[in-house]
Specification:
496 residues, four-stranded antiparallel sheet, 14 strands, 13 helices, alpha+beta, elongated
Length: 496
């Protein structure tokens, strides 16, 4: 927790909450401060309400409806002070929240709205100009507001790791539903933003590849924001970005927008005026001006656009690169473990005694997995490994199936179970075989992707991503806390 707290401390310095902001006020953005109460309330809600249940799908579902996003001014609570602009799925100027948590599967990230705030003009010595004497502007800050939920992020990452590791908790998410919801959500976001010319607002929601690892978001804060001769802004995110994975276009990129000099290691104005881009009125395509004539001059340093560090990465839809693989991996795990472990005994494929079925089996879209679980339960009643089942735990989950196991000779106490295990241990060939030999063994869990919010070193990586270490260390402690709070019983399963 300390590892994550350090980068957040500087961000939130001087912004401590002095009053409570109800969830209904989240639409009034951009936020001027981090509010611990709102962040922790989501965590309490999960631990006290959703966590003890058998459906964790809402935790990992999008926080708003999958509807068109639009751009509005963000205001402070006084309703008058405009601090920036907000891109969100508005309905009559109200954000279309759906009551879900917004935790992104397979990550330590939370989805939120998108806000933009311009930056104050820099010192005179840092200003650069076009040849028509107008100022070369720079991007302000694009913020994904879900990053302001550090406690919820930790809960999300730790809980998803618990799901992805297998066991009864893995069946508390409806993978088919999650995959569809996130695909529809991102499609609505990407499509509406591009159609309205707000492509650059998508930077926080593009998956960016860094040494084979997918991070969520690219930082353009402070980089040059070129203008065209018609006054429009040359976009970083284009339709081609979703096809080629590159920012800008081949025609709009330039290796040398203008040149600078250097004095004592500090970049200074090189008296090289930049030229503006041309924009085709019919196609909307942008064409960069020729490179600066001084680009090869001695003591001259070119300023390219886009910057090289942004061009080194490849970009994809976040759902394609991060979410869908994580969800599909859990879906595969759910099916394979039903035949390769004792999970089928510890979950409810159907509602029993007024208690709902686990989320993975609920709904018409999960009929195949539900039927498969029921079939594995039938096979377990005659399989030698039924002697390993903790009868007491099964009875808490499904009394009817517990009775069937007892009738099949399953020990009902720990002492009886130990005696049965000793008996079967003398004949290893009679046990240890999967319930369904045709089903492959579960694959290893996918590593967490997405990076961390406000990562101080977003471009660095090692054999094990540096950002994962503090997240996992903090997550390990949180998993223990969640387990205690929810009364989670860890069952040692065959092959698990």
């Amino acid at each position: 927790m300390v590892g994550i707290g350090k980068p957040l401390a500087g961000l939130f310095k001087g912004l401590a909450a002095d009053d409570h902001v109800p969830l209904s006020s989240e639409a009034r953005l951009p936020w001027g401060r981090y509010n611990r109460d709102v962040d922790q309330e989501w965590v309490r809600t999960f631990i006290n309400i959703d966590g003890p249940g058998v459906d964790w799908t809402p935790m990992f579902a999008p926080p708003t409806k999958a509807t068109s996003w639009s751009l509005l001014d963000g205001v402070e609570k006084d309703g008058k002070t405009v601090l920036g602009q907000v891109l969100a799925p508005f309905t009559n100027k109200t954000v279309a929240y759906n009551g879900m948590y917004g935790c992104i599967p397979g990550t330590f990230r939370v989805a939120g709205l998108l806000q933009y705030r311009g930056r104050p003009q820099g010192a005179a010595a840092s200003l650069r100009f076009y040849n028509d004497a107008t100022l070369i502007h720079r991007y302000g800050d694009f913020t994904q507001t879900g990053d302001f939920f550090p406690a919820l992020q930790q809960l999300a990452g730790a809980t998803w790791q618990q799901v992805a590791a297998g066991g009864p908790d893995a069946y508390k998410v409806d993978c088919a539903k999650l995959e569809t919801m996130w695909r529809d959500w991102f499609t609505a976001l990407y499509t509406s933003a591009m159609e309205q010319g707000h492509g650059d607002y998508l930077l926080p929601y593009l998956a960016r590849e860094v040494h084979g690892e997918w991070r969520l978001g690219a930082n353009a804060s402070g980089i040059i924001c070129p203008n065209a001769t018609d006054g429009s802004i040359v976009p970083l995110v284009t339709d081609g970005t979703f096809k080629t994975g590159a920012l800008a276009t081949a025609a709009s990129r330039t290796p040398c927008m203008f040149t600078e000099g250097e004095v004592n290691g500090v970049r200074v104005d090189g008296n090289d005026l930049a030229r503006k881009w041309l924009r085709d009125a019919k196609t909307g395509a942008y064409t960069a001006p020729p490179p600066s004539p001084y680009m090869n001059g001695k003591g001259r340093f070119c300023v390219p656009w886009p910057p090289g560090d942004l061009l080194l990465s490849k970009y994809r839809r976040a759902d394609d690169a991060i979410i869908t693989p994580a969800v599909q991996a859990v879906a595969q795990l759910q099916r394979r473990r039903l035949s390769r472990s004792l999970d089928c005994a510890y979950v409810r494929p159907v509602a029993v005694d007024g208690r709902p079925a686990y989320a993975a089996f609920a709904g018409p879209g999960n009929a195949v997995l539900r039927d498969y679980c029921i079939e594995m339960r039938k096979r377990l009643l005659t399989h030698p490994d039924r002697m390993k089942v903790e009868y007491e735990t099964v009875r808490e989950v499904d009394k009817e199936y517990a009775d069937a196991l007892r009738t099949a000779g399953v020990p009902t106490t720990a002492m009886q179970r130990a005696a049965a295990m000793a008996k079967f241990g003398a004949n290893p060939k009679s046990a240890g075989q999967p319930l369904d030999p045709k089903q492959p063994a579960p694959a290893r869990p996918l590593p967490a992707q997405g990076g961390l919010a406000f990562d101080p070193n977003p471009g660095s990586t090692t054999d094990r991503p540096a950002w994962v270490k503090p997240a996992i260390y903090g997550g390990a402690a949180l998993v223990s806390s969640i387990a205690l709070a929810l009364g989670i019983k860890h069952v040692r399963a065959q092959g698990g």
